[in-house]
Design a protein that fits this description.
about 35% helix, Arc Repressor Mutant, subunit A, 16 strands, 11 helices, alpha/beta, globular, NERD domain-containing protein, binds zinc ion
Length: about 350
């Protein structure tokens, strides 16, 4: 048997939308009327990401060569469609959708819905099989549009929560599987396709065409939730203790809760602003976000960062360019800090 090669063309990462809601939650006062709503939005994103992460291990055990893309969002006829993970092989493609349903879940294929029961609580979701079949159809249309060869597309819904107890339509048995059944199901699917339709090279080209066409969902609190800028707290977080509101003392940031110092703590605040407002920044906006008072100091600090500038004098704007995949690790760290010391930081609002 030939050695199985895996090429991850687009790795799993925390999506821009999740980064935005995580950052918003850290800065939104707990008494804000939409605070609970944002808590739920964050919870949903975390569960989704956690579920997708659980696919990684079984996928890493795939014993046939394949390329892999996670969280792909492709434009089609003015709209977008999204896939949790896409496996490419020269014989077939496979779309996998991860679901984190827990407890008793009944599949009702006559009405295309899923009913989850948790004690007295009942929730109704859209049918995930219908969802993944729709993705298959849209992917086919997309590939036809760009004249890619007709290659079979398989679909799977993977249940990632161990407490999941399915019932209902048995027609769904091969389409909806628990995550511990994934490795064997992948082998079964692979054994059904022996004919090579696209060469290895073409598969790699197709994978990169998907990557080039990918457009992440980027939005901001005002647009998405009607939460405008002055409703969330500005300021620089202390990465040692999590306090919001470090002060600038002799060109260094100082935390007056834990005493820690930093030369570049403001960078994370700028990144937060990138997530919450957008990619442009004026000197005044920098001062408002960080609490730096002097125009001159702000200008010096901005000058160090190599941002592209355009416009003149007061209207001068800096164009922020950050990578959603690489530049937001501080946010994960901060979220964990808050989770670990939850009680201590219940009241996080701090004024300059
Ligand atoms: Zn501190």
């Amino acid at each position: 048997m030939l050695e199985a090669k895996c090429m991850i063309i687009k790795p799993l990462s925390i999506q821009p939308y999740q980064l935005m809601v995580e950052s918003l939650l850290l800065r939104l006062p707990t008494h804000h009327s939409k605070h609970n709503f944002i808590v739920n939005a964050v919870g949903k994103e975390r569960a989704g990401y956690y579920g997708e992460k659980k696919l990684m291990y079984p996928i890493s055990k795939i014993d046939f060569s394949h390329d892999l893309l996670f969280q792909l969002r492709l434009p089609l006829n003015g709209a977008y469609f999204q896939m949790d993970s896409l496996v490419l092989t020269p014989r077939f493609l496979l779309i996998m959708e991860a679901k984190n349903y827990s407890d008793d879940v009944a599949f009702d294929s006559d009405f295309y819905r899923v009913v989850q029961k948790r004690g007295d609580e009942v929730r109704v979701y859209d049918d995930p099989v219908l969802q993944v079949e729709e993705q298959r159809y849209l992917l086919q249309v997309w590939m036809e549009m760009f004249n890619y060869p007709d290659i079979p597309i398989e679909t799977l819904v993977v249940m990632t929560n161990p407490s999941f107890r399915p019932s209902g339509d048995s027609r769904y048995k091969e389409k909806i599987i628990p995550v511990n059944r994934l490795s064997s199901r992948l082998r079964e699917i692979s054994s059904q396709y022996s004919r090579q339709i696209i060469s290895r090279k073409e598969i790699s080209r197709l994978g990169h065409a998907f990557l080039d066409a990918h457009e992440p969902y980027v939005t901001y609190p005002d647009r998405r939730f009607g939460i405008v800028e002055h409703e969330w707290n500005k300021g620089v977080f202390c990465m040692e203790c999590g306090r919001l509101g470090m002060r600038m003392m002799r060109m260094r940031w100082e935390c007056n809760r834990c005493g820690s110092r930093s030369g570049d703590a403001h960078i994370n605040a700028i990144k937060d602003r990138y997530l919450l407002v957008g990619p442009t920044l004026t000197n005044a906006e920098f001062r408002e976000m960080t609490g730096v008072k002097s125009v001159y100091t702000a200008s010096r600090m901005l000058g160090r960062e190599n941002y592209n500038k355009y416009g003149k004098n007061k209207g001068r704007k800096h164009r922020l360019e950050y990578s959603y995949e690489k530049d937001f690790g501080y946010l994960e760290y901060l979220v964990k800090l808050y989770q670990d010391r939850q009680i201590k930081f219940k009241n996080k609002q701090i004024n300059f």
